[in-house]
Design a protein that fits this description.
heterodimer, A: 635 residues, alpha/beta, Glutaredoxin, Rossmann fold, Ubiquitin-like (UB roll), five-stranded mixed β-sheet, four-stranded mixed β-sheet, flat, B: 289 residues, five-stranded parallel β-sheet, elongated, NADP_DH_HndA-like (chain B), oxidoreductase (chain B), hydrogen dehydrogenase (NADP+) activity (chain B), EC 1.12.1.3 (chain B)
């Protein structure tokens, strides 16, 4: 964890008054309008950065200069993540927000030429509709964006995340001004309670209620902690000030003077630098520090970090870790809101929850409730991944169905695949089958389906997914991340892992399925913390919805997805094989032979079940059949 | 077991009997009845274990132990004594010895004790060669570590930060560093160890020049990060400590780096590489020298 150096302020920012904020909003020169003709917004998110966004910026500036376009006519600047990571790199051209995607740094001249010289969108690099192959040049018309409701993410991809003035310009810190100067702590808590905001970290505990418990404690010292786990990364990357503002408001509401942002990985330099910069600038403007807006209210924020354990996302374990101890969870009650860090009342919320707070305070709870359902109001950020065409970061009103997420926002499934299940809730989440695809994404409906909202991670699984294998992976995770405090979690996950391994390797027995289900249920019921209670969910839901798959593994020694090596045989269907030879070229074992334009054959003695041929075959003529081995391992 | 052993006792029978028990076990034995000669021998040779009597004419056992600790502190000392009163034992244990054998003793006791002592001393020697003390810039690092400890000494709950800084400084957290930190922060070593062993960020083993992390979280697992791992292991020949023979690369698996939309993820040093496959990963590694 190298030292982080932060420039205190890039412009001479002094402590601001409310009038100053108004002046900034009036005078602020939106970088989008600096170029008289247009401005190019280069996405600087981690996905785009990995695909050369820096090089693209350079190329753009160079190319514009070459074509005789000055930087005052067309300006280039970097923004936060657009969330369109699947199509990275992404650039937007303001004012009409033409979006160019999935190009290489070398394609920049072509884009500049088409767009600025010829004056029309460079069709080759704009987004094409997946079904109709129609070009959609403008960002706001692309279904991925148009079907989202971006509230927390509304500035991402449009502003420079380090620029506090940009944040202020987009109505940032209005909520804070209102909370500090015009509202009593009780009113803030009431507003949050009325908004129905629920903790976005997984459990969905009503945030207002938590705050109220803390507010009513008589202690003088209280703490506010922002749990910045991996999924919160997206918000910190794009809009760190929204979290800071939310935390200050929370501090005001419960009477805390100290806040911590807990980052789980101490080596995540990008995030740490961004946080330090944001805190430093907020302090420079007087949003942090003593006597904020002359109200007599003091609040400071420090960044604190753990050392990379999943369990430290659990609030009590997080607090132990901040105290410099092993991250063991402790029984609740007492809740952290009553007795948390160093025994003081502490509210722990995740970054997305805090990012919602300033919006609620600034716009009122009625506005917040205007989207979402009655008991799960507002929006929720999900990361969309897996077998869908468009992966990325999305924000949708709660209550949107998974069908809409998969087929409309995500652009449906990739070629050759059909939907099998949606995995919800991150590493400790579970699956819902295709038949429940119309489930609305609300806390109640997701819980009713047997899974959790968790960190808001969606993985779309296609027909090539083996549920037994996925459950095995989940148990490997659960077993590896168990802190070891509770026996059911520590040993139960290991026993489940062993049983699942037996099944995937052909040693399973039919009674194992019931035993697994029972064990998973007991682990869920008897462990202390959220990790132990959620890690068996994958096993439970896989058995609940895909029991027959476990049975074929055990009875027929057949993994239909071909993921369990010992339980699958790859066979070429002679009727559909055209003899193109692409599988034979890919086979690392040289196990496939055959004449050109004639059906090929796989030598089962050489085959190592690596799936390369299955994935390569353009004609889907490779079948997966039960294992040919007589008795895989009889004992 | 191999080992270089010196036996010091004014009674020649004891020296001879020890020799007859230990020599067949593969130990190299030197014996002397003169304690001042023993000091010369210790100065000139490297013994793993010195077995000594306490009551001797001239330089007695207590003095001899003090001298050994000054001359060759990494020598293991086993005391043979006829005075096994509690105070006596307390005194000799405080001198920093490994064990004591009370006279009269059986060959079996002697052998057991010496085997245990040799095993221990070898372990300590192996550790101390990896400790920062033997590095050329050890002094600088000790000083830096002291500064870190001083900075956080009065901050409650700062153990994690101290350990993170220490790992940054030294690269890993061997037992000696853990002891050093425990001493500095005035907390039990067990507490330091409990924290170091709990968090995956901390490592007690040295890492390679470039550290590769392969994400095996759900999304990456679904996108076959396992294949990347297999290929890395096959191509780079990691040893059991997950480090290559030339010390250039080391690897570990991590669970979810939080960039699931861009799976599978491989992180090298502080650079994140997304949407990679086995071939691409090996290509990327070529850029790290």
């Amino acid at each position: 964890m190298p030292a982080i150096k932060v420039r205190a302020t890039d412009r001479s920012i002094k402590k601001l008054t409310i009038e100053d904020l108004k002046i900034i909003r009036e005078k602020y020169k939106d970088p989008r309008t600096i170029g008289t003709k247009a401005s190019i917004l280069v996405c600087g998110g981690s996905a785009c950065a990995a695909r050369g966004s820096l090089k693209i910026q350079e190329n753009l500036s160079g190319e514009l200069e070459k074509k005789g376009i000055s930087s005052s006519e067309v300006s280039v600047y970097e923004t936060g993540c657009n969330g369109f990571c699947n199509q990275s790199p992404v650039i937007n051209v303001y004012p009409d927000m033409t979006l160019y995607q999935a190009f290489k740094p070398e394609d920049v001249p072509a884009i500049v030429d088409e767009h600025f010289i010829k004056g029309q969108p460079a069709d080759r690099f704009v987004y094409k509709d997946i079904k109709e192959k129609k070009s959609i040049p403008n960002r706001q018309d692309i279904p991925f964006f148009s079907l989202q409701t971006r509230r927390v993410l509304n500035k991402s991809g449009l502003i420079q995340p380090d620029d506090i003035e940009a944040y202020i310009f987009h109505n940032g810190y209005t909520g804070l001004v209102r909370a500090v100067t015009a509202m009593k702590p009780q009113e803030i808590v009431k507003e949050i309670k009325d908004s129905g905001l629920r903790g976005r970290g997984g459990g969905g505990f009503p945030t207002g209620l938590k705050w109220e418990i803390s507010m009513n404690r008589p202690d003088h010292t209280k703490y506010v902690i922002c749990n910045a786990g991996p999924i919160s990364r997206s918000i910190i990357e794009n809009d760190p000030h929204s979290i800071i503002e939310g935390m200050i408001i929370a501090g005001r509401a419960i009477g805390a003077a100290k806040g911590f942002i807990y980052v789980r990985e101490p080596d995540n330099l990008f995030i740490l630098r961004r946080l330090h910069t944001a805190i430093e600038r907020a302090r420079g403007c007087g949003f942090l520090g003593d006597n904020i807006f002359d109200s007599g209210f003091d609040f400071t924020i420090d960044v604190s970090f753990g050392a990379g354990t999943f369990i430290c996302g659990e609030e009590t374990a997080l607090i132990r870790s901040m105290e410099g101890k092993r991250g063991f969870p402790t029984p609740k009650p007492p809740y952290p809101a009553q007795s948390g860090l160093w025994g003081r009342p502490t509210i722990v919320d995740n970054a997305e929850t805090f990012a919602n707070v300033p919006l609620i305070i600034a716009n009122g709870q009625a506005w917040f409730r205007s989207v979402g359902t009655h008991s799960s109001p507002g929006t929720k950020i999900f990361t969309l991944g897996g077998a869908v065409n468009l992966n990325g970061l999305i924000e949708i009103p709660m209550g949107t169905t998974f069908r809409s997420i998969v087929y409309e926002i995500g652009g449906g499934l990739k070629k050759k695949s059909t939907l099998k299940a949606v995995h919800i809730g991150g590493p400790t989440g579970g699956v819902i089958p295709e038949s429940l695809i119309d489930t609305p994404a609300t806390y109640e409906d997701i819980t009713a389906a047997g899974v959790i909202v968790g960190s808001g991670n969606l993985i779309i699984m296609d027909n090539n997914t083996c549920m037994v294998n996925e459950a095995l992976g989940a148990m490997e995770f659960g077993h590896g991340e168990s802190c070891g405090k509770c026996v059911p979690c520590r040993i139960g996950t290991k026993v489940m892992y062993d049983k699942l391994l037996d099944i995937t390797e052909g040693r399973g027995k039919l009674e194992d399925i019931d035993m697994l289900a029972e064990l998973a249920f007991e682990v869920k019921r008897t462990t202390l913390c959220g990790l132990g209670q959620t890690s068996p969910i994958m096993v439970l839901t896989a058995i609940k919805y895909f029991r027959e798959e476990f049975e074929t593994h055990i009875k027929d020694h057949w993994c239909q997805a071909g993921k369990c090596r010992t339980l699958s045989t790859f066979v070429i269907e002679p009727k559909t094989c055209t003899g193109c030879g692409s599988c034979a070229r890919k086979c690392p074992q040289g196990a496939i032979s055959g004449e050109k334009k004639k059906p090929h054959l796989i030598d089962q003695a050489l085959c190592i079940q690596c799936r390369s041929c299955f994935e390569t075959c353009p004609f889907v003529s490779i079948r997966i059949e039960p294992s040919v081995a007589e008795e895989v391992d009889s004992w | 077991m191999e080992g270089n052993i010196l036996i010091v006792d004014d009674d020649d029978i004891v020296v001879k009997s020890c020799d007859s028990v230990l020599a067949p076990e593969g130990f190299t034995i030197t014996g002397t009845t003169d304690s001042s000669k023993a000091i010369e021998l210790i100065r000139d040779n490297d013994y793993d274990i010195v077995i000594t009597d306490l009551n001797m004419p001239g330089i007695d056992g207590f003095e001899l132990i003090r001298q050994i600790n000054a001359l060759k502190p990494s020598t293991g000392i086993v005391v043979i004594t006829g005075f096994t009163s509690q105070q006596n034992i307390k005194d000799i244990l405080q001198l920093g010895i490994i064990d004591y054998i009370s006279k009269p003793f059986s060959p079996h006791t002697l052998l057991e004790t010496i085997l245990k002592a040799t095993y221990l001393i070898k372990k300590i020697k192996a550790l101390s060669t990896a400790e920062p003390d033997t590095e050329p810039d050890a002094k600088k690092k000790t000083e830096a570590l002291n500064n870190i400890i001083d900075e956080y000494k009065s901050v409650p709950g700062s153990l994690l930060r101290v350990l993170e800084s220490a790992q940054d400084l030294i690269g890993y957290l061997p037992p000696s560093v853990q002891r050093f930190i425990a001493n500095g922060l005035r907390i039990p070593v067990s507490e330091v160890y409990s924290v170091v062993s709990f968090y995956p960020y901390f490592t007690m083993k040295a890492r390679g020049k470039h550290h590769i992390r392969v994400c095996v979280g759900n999304a990456c697992h679904a996108k076959k990060s396992g294949q990347i791992l297999t290929r890395l292991k096959r191509n780079l020949n990691f040893n059991e400590d997950n480090i290559t023979a030339d010390g250039k690369f080391s690897f570990e698996t991590v669970r979810c780096l939080g960039a699931c939309g861009f799976a599978p993820i491989v992180e090298i040093d502080y650079d994140t590489h997304g949407a990679v496959d086995p071939d691409k990963t090996l290509d990327i590694l070529k850029d790290y020298h």
